[in-house]
């Protein structure tokens, strides 16, 4: 679908289109007061899942672009004008998000990049995280057990101590919270491109320490409001296995070394 068609389907007038830097999956355009995300052949449910995540985060007090229209072929959101960096404000916003307890882990089907993760709920965190997050990624790998290069590695992933993951309690998480999904708008910090589901906040904390990480001022503000127990800090490499395994599947062997290091820290 072309951006013009998505605007028409949303009942919106045409605006000049300006390509924006997007993720690794969708094409992104600005159209006047709107942002358009499209994909030539999106996985079923891909854009509706993102829209659900944005609306759930908004309901918890997180600043996100307002969803204007969504269907299977694209997503229309409001355009947020850029503003100055405010890492302290982001720390406060995420501490508030991670302070709001939920009933049980899981939720609707979500995507990590283009990789689908099944719906479902559970009360045993370690079991849920392995069965609904790690195992689907292993099963997405082509011939994982028969791979001479990755077979042993994937076996190590299976045998990691998922049953010993600490439990602070279920909270809504962004689910893919690297610095590229943080946006500083005029109104304050905002989050983009969620893979939102109910899990342990350690999943978000682990991703925030990957790929360049967040600055010290963020962590100081966040931990002043919501300290991180040592048991959660020790578990962060296990959660990084989740993200690095997905990157290995999507982008190749550049992530093999980091995944091995995370597995070693997880053990």
What features would you highlight for this structure?
single chain, 267 residues, alpha+beta, Phosphorylase Kinase, domain 1, Aminoglycoside 3'-phosphotransferase, Chain: A, domain 2, 2 domains, five-stranded antiparallel β-sheet, two-stranded antiparallel ribbon, 9 helices, 41% helix, globular
Indicate the CATH architecture of the largest domain.
Alpha-Beta Complex
How many structural domains? 2
Helix content: 40-55%
DSSP strand content:
15-25%
From the alpha carbons, calculate the radius of gyration and give it in angstroms.
19 Å
Count the DSSP helices: 9
Largest sheet: 5 strands, antiparallel
* Largest sheet, spatial ordering of strands: 1-2-3-5-4
Q: Note the overall shape.
A: globular
* Elements, N to C (H/E): HEEEHEEHEEEEHHEEEEHHHH
Going by helix content, strand content and strand pairing, the class is alpha+beta
End-to-end span in angstroms? 46 Å
